[in-house]
Amino acid sequence: MTAPWAALAALPNGPDVPGLLLVLAAVLAATKVGGELVRRVGQPAVLGELLAGVLLGGSVLGVLDPSEPVLHMLSELGVLVLLFAVGLGTDLRALRRVGAMALMVGTAGILLPFAGGFAVARALGATPLTALVVAAALTATSIGISARVLGDLGRLQDDEGHIVLGAAVFDDVIGLVILAVVGSVVAGEGITAGSVTRSAFIAIGFVVGAVVVGTLIMRPLMAVASRVGDAGAVGVLALGFAFVTAALAARAGSAMIIGAFAAGLVLHATPQRHDIERWTTSVGHVLVPVFFASVGAEVDVPALLSPAALGLGAALIAVAIVGKVAAGYAPWWFTGNKLLVGIAMVPRGEVGLIFAQMGVAAGVLVGAEFGAVILMVVVTTFVTPLLLGMVAGPPRPGSGGPDDDVGLDELVSGAKQRPRRATVQGRHLGGGP
Question: How sure is the predictor about 3, in pLDDT bands with cuts at 50, 70 and 90?
Answer without folding.
Answer: very low
